[in-house]
What does this fold into?
Amino acid sequence: MTIQLEVRGAGKHHPSGWALRDCDLTVDPSTVTALIGPNGAGKSTLMAAAAGLTSLTTGEILVNGRRVVRAMPPELGYLAQDTPLYRRWRVADMVDQTADLNTRWDAPHAARLIDEAGIDPDTRVGTLSGGQRTRLALALVLGKRPALVLLDEPLADLDPLARLQVQQTLMTEVATTGMTVLMSSHILGDVQDTCDDLVLLQDGRVTLRGPVDVLISRHRLLTGPPADPAALGWLKAPDVVEIRSSLRQTTVLVSAPPPGLPAGWTDQPATLDEIVIARLRATTQPGHTQEGAA
It folds into this structure.
C-alpha cells in the first residue's frame, strides 16, 4: 500500500517554543483522517509544513515517498484556516487565477462544484456568504484534482447546513477519486460522521491514533460509588485514561474493558466527545483524579 503522507520525527521551533516536537504520523491512502487537538497543539503548523509553506527544524514529511522541502507537491491541495480569497475579485477571476497557477487543473470539475454551491461566477467574492466562500475555496482546491488534501478547520465558521454541504462534497470526492484527506476540526460530531481515522495532537505530539469506530468501541465508561483512587486497584493502570470523583459517584474512562466489575459498578460505551475531552484533561499520570462533578 502506498503511503500518501508520512511524518517522521517532525519538529518546529519558534522563539516562543516548540510548535511540533518528535511528531510521527502516517495517513493511509483513500481515507479521511481528523486531526484533533487544543489550540496551540501544532495542527496548523503540521499542515503548513506538509504543504511546503514552512520548514521544519527537525525531522521530515514525505508525500508519496518524496520529501517536502519548501514547495507544495503538485498532487497536494491545501486550504488554510483563513480561507484566502480576494474579496474584491469576481468568482470567475479567482478561478482563472487559480488555473494559471496550477499545472494540474480540471476546469469543468471546478465549474461544476461552483455551480452546485449556487455561486454565480460573476459575483464578487466579498458578497458571498461564509458557506459559499468556503465552498468556493474548496472548489479551487479540488479543481487541481489533488491526490492528497489538507484542510485546516474548513467547517469552523459554517452553519449546520453549510457544514453538511461541505461534508457531502468531500465524501463524494473521496468516493469517486480515492483521494486522501487530512482535516483538522474541533467539531467532534462532524468527525464521527465524516472521518475514518482520528489523530489527537497534544503539545506537538500524537497522543492517540486509530480508526474512529475502533476507538469508540474500545473505550468504556465505568461508573460506581464514591471511592478513593487508591481503592481502585482492580483497574489495570495502563488502561485508565481518567478518574473523576464527586460526592455522589466515581467515573472512570478506560481504554480497554476490564474482565469484570465489582458490585455497584456499571459499564457503558464512551462517546467520542468523552474520549477526546478526557484525554485532553488527563495528565501524563494514568489514574490521575480530576476533581469536580462527574
